[in-house]
Amino acid sequence: MLNYILYILLPSYIVLASQFKWFGIAGRATWEAFVPFYNIWVNLRFLKKPWYWILLFFLPGVNIMMLMVISVNTATAFNKRSMTDGLFAALLPFVFFPMIASKEDLKFVGSVDREIHKKSALREWGEAIVFAIVAASIIRTYFMEAFTIPTPSMEKTLLVGDFLFVSKLHYGPKVPNTPLSFPFAHHTLPATTSTPSYLEWMKLPYHRLPGFTDVDRYDVVVFNFPEGDTIIVGKDNPSYYQQVRDLSAPLYNLAIQKNAKLDWENFDGRSRKSLLTQKEWRVRPLDKREHYIKRCVGIPGDTIMIKNAKLFVNGEASPDFPEMQYSYLVESQTLLNPKRVKEDFNVRIQDQAPERGTGRKIWPLTEEMKEKMESQSYIQQLTMKADLPLDRARILESNKVAGNVFPNSRNNTWTENDYGPLWIPKAGSQVGLTLQNLPIYRRIIEVYEGNELKVKEGKIFINGAEASTYTFQMDYFFMMGDNRHSSLDSRFWGFVPENHVVGKAVFVWLSLDEDLSLTEGKIRWSSMFSLIE
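Below the sequence we write its predicted structure tokens.
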């Protein structure tokens, strides 16, 4: 909270408290320059600017831009009107204002009389762009933001190439953690591949403004990727943590061949060291982690279980959403043309590649697509991926080796199709801690809620004290993609903390089909302006 208060007060003090001399020249009492926010109101009065501009200083991510705007206008009111003066005042006000205030010939001339001094076209455009950026930043940060669907994890509910609006108001907008950021860029500067778009000189704690509702079960939610805190520069997918698990798997296999000890902690430690010494890596702040979009299938306090790919929440079967997909083995009498399959059954061309290592065709299908395909005489058989014994055995063995399914414990036999039961933590709830369930809660305790956790001689210590229980500070959620066999979701990396939730997906405003050529038309008219359910 102290950081937040200092951040709010900083703009008014950086500029206005340094120019108490100016207040006297402008006909005001010099003491007024030292009163936070009141000094801004006074400055706006002698600049003849709207009083409500002061409200923008309460919006992190916007108030720095407003500081720049007021700085330029203040310089102009004291007859510093060149382009150089404007840039100096906007970018280095804490240097510009004290330097100019020391001059004896300083005069207050007031705001520019536009009847006499016409703005240049460059100035007109510059001011219009600045205020457009301010207005758009307010909307994007606190009301609604545009997103694009880059992967098929939510097909056919949301399609690759869908452009959608996400409401920040439903769950309450988050105050930016890193407010010093390039406008409209997420974590990387435009036209670069790895240059950060933000500065971490000022960090704000997590704070969410009031919203209309809580996250409800089965909402489609945008959130910051929980495993996106640490990235390997140039290769942030798969996540750093998955890369560690992948590097550890060959060490496991080698240990089995040599009948050696299966020391996973040592394997993971060697893998982490290898990655962090050989590759460039970076830690991203919470609000600059990659955005994911999934369906919230479990809210705080729920218990989820997956049996043969079917989801159960608190012991009851979850509804099958109309556009939800499962992957099926497709056996046909004839060779199927990818473009024809796209036209007849709406299977993306990119999804028609053979299953890796087997040559079999495994396609994602909704129930409607499956029934339509089964009615064709040339289709011999459709078998859900979860019902394939060999496939299930292979996945199970892979998960035992690489720990790819959360909680990523190598002695865990859960798979993406047979998972749980798993209880979802709720703020204020207490859980008993054992060495067996610690992998489920360890990341919450250490990373999300900032405690020091150690295991010594079979005992668990939190912040130096032995612990047999833990009380959760935040709510957590379990997210899954509607494309159930082609989604990297909570089954693989775990819970989504409440401070990672960004907003609720509300409607699609544009949809472009990347499968089609330009001559055939790329706009999917049927998806445009559709509500997301």
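The chain has a mean pLDDT of 82.
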